[in-house]
Amino acid sequence: MNDTIKNIAKQKALVRHSSNMTVIDGLLTWVESIDLMIWAFLGPASAMGLCIVGSAWGIWSTGTSLLGACVRKREIWMKNLISILLCEAIAIYGVIATVILISHMSEHDNMGTIADYRAAYGFFASGLTTGFGCLSAGICVGIIGGAVAVADASNRSLFVKCFIVEVFAEAIALLAVIIGIVTAASVSFK
User: Phi and psi for 107 in degrees, rounded to 5?
Assistant: First the structure.
């Protein structure tokens, strides 16, 4: 059965190359030519990489604003480090999602069934969902964390009110990880 699917894919590729090939046909041929396990492992790699980029962006954004606000009021630095820790948690979410995604993967001899394609693209989509969700959460937490530091330097009663908004921005990353795990749990190589 695996040879039949490979022969059909080769025949489709020959037909596409022999006729006038559009950009979409060329893109589909390129996507189909990549091994399924590469697509599957690109998911966890995307999750890890994008989560770390989001975390780094948030730490950079919050850290620079925090340092600037500490010039005005030195005593605010300790409680505003929570914003840095929230950004660091986003990177940890990426590690957790990557470990869970990789633990669900297994390769077998008869790769190429429809279920295998579904699983490979499912792992890829799961990693992208987690990665982009954590990237956007890192940017949000970084921007809000910087604003919290500046607001705290101006008026100490604003810290808790602004920090609640920052926690909701962090929840975006947690939701992305949950969606990624649910997606990964729904697919498997058979």
Answer: -100, 145
